[in-house]
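User: Sequence in, structure out. Go.
Assistant: Echoing your sequence, followed by the structure tokens.
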Amino acid sequence: MKNYKIIAKKGIALWVMTVILTFTLKACGKDKMEFPTGTITLTTAKSEVSFTLRIPIDARDLTIDWGDGKKSNISDASWDATIADNRGVHYTYEYSDNTEHTITITGQIMEFDCRNMQITHLDLSKIKTLKMLDCRNNKLTALDVSANTALNRLECDLNQLTSLDVSKNTSLSLLSCVGNQLSVNALNDLFRSLPHKRGLEYNEVGDIFISFRNFGPRDNPGVLDCDRNIAEEKGWFFRTLRQ
């Protein structure tokens, strides 16, 4: 009888271990699925380009198609600091001519810093997991972030944007769009599209930058006459950017 009890206990223990292992494997699989592969496409005429990505720490696949017949992968990157579950990778590339090129980046991308690249077009429609975008000081006349629902931080200062809609970016907590071509109506529409940060169900605040500390010709045309109350009533606080 004792042998039967021992066998039964061992059987129960084995079943418990199997259940725990199954849930652990499922959880690991779920974590990996949080950052599926996506694609960013951009167009630039700059002869030497440089940008930084943040990717999951266990990411293995990352491909850069430079648009001139050459490609780079994750082993060609310069590594930046590792933070928590992600790490930074930096790329610099020099073209042999000054013509326009289309760069295609494919991989598990969490953040994208593409400042100062003279970008005229940026396609983010195929990257769903982007949490941070810094595209300051480029030549963008339009920016569509409707597919980037995980976006938490957006910095698009010093471009040529005439409109901006962040209604799909419900996780957004910082927005900086100083030095564009946003009119009074465009800014008011932007404020209306901001996610709510105020109320019993919200415990955050949002920071928004629409002007330099000292107003000047590079500021958005609608800065002085826009209705800031629209954003403030949603829990957004206006900040000014140092020049």
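User: And one key feature?
Assistant: Helices lie at 2-33, 184-193, 229-232.
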